[in-house]
Amino acid sequence: METPQRRRFDIIVEGRNPGKGSKMPPFMNRRTGRIVLVEENAAEKKAWERRAVAALKELLPPGQQPWRGPVFIAVILYYARPANQYTGNNRVTGKLRDNAPQFARTGRPDGDKAMRLVWDAVTKAGVIADDVLVSYWGGQKRWSDNGKTYTHVTVILMDDDDYPEAAEDLDSLIRFIEEEKQK
User: Fold this and answer.
1) Where do the domains of the chain lie, and which CATH numbers do they carry?
2) pLDDT above 70 covers what percent of the chain?
3) Lowest mean per-residue pLDDT among 48-62, 71-85, 111-125
4) In the prediction, which pLDDT does 132 show?
5) Residue 2: CB atoms within 10 Å
6) What are phi and psi of 114, to 5 degrees?
7) Phi, psi (degrees; rounded to nearest 5) at 146
8) What is the pLDDT of residue 142?
């Protein structure tokens, strides 16, 4: 297998990752009589995916072929805290209420559906040949420090000896990402 020119891709995609795969309840097309399933938020998903593909293509060196080896993908979904989690009008100063939730957003999108959208974008951008190559992945939802909602995606094209040795849980996954940034 040929070593790629670029092995690591870090991108930030602005806006909420809507996830991929949720369908609205089926309905019958009156004209054809067929049952139709429609993707939820299809326009939002396409727009997010377009931004992710563009960011990845910008980092892809000319002539680099889609990778056909093992792939590591980490996704961190950052969410802006709602104004009601701050005391008074102190969103700017960052004074959180005592009862502000520690964990970010336990609602939609589902983590697996957010991952699915990322994997499809990485494939469409031509970074990898197929998302079946993703052999190591992880994700997390966090509150953002800058008041914005966005997604941080890290893609590492690996050889067999690149697997992190101590990647048994999400904390070691995050440590691995941070250590790779240092390289």
Assistant:
1) 8-182 (3.30.1330.70)
2) 72
3) 71-85
4) 94
5) 9
6) -65, -40
7) -100, 5
8) 87
Q: Residue 26: phi, psi to the nearest 5?
A: -65, 150
Query: Residue-wise over 69-83: b if at least 16 C-beta within 10 A, else e?
Result: bbbbbbbbbbbbbee
Query: What is the pTM for the complete model shown?
Result: 0.76
- The residue with tokens 């961190």 is 76
Per-residue DSSP letters for 90-110?
A: -TTTT-B-TT--SS---SSSP
Statement: residue 10 has pLDDT above 50: yes
Omega within 30 of 0 (cis) for the link into 109: yes
Other C-beta atoms closer than 10 Å to the C-beta of 179 total 10
Q: Rounded to an integer, what distance in angstroms lies between the CA atom of residue 9 and that of residue 60?
A: 8
Please state, in angstroms and rounded to a whole number, the distance separating the CA atoms of residues 81 and 147: 7
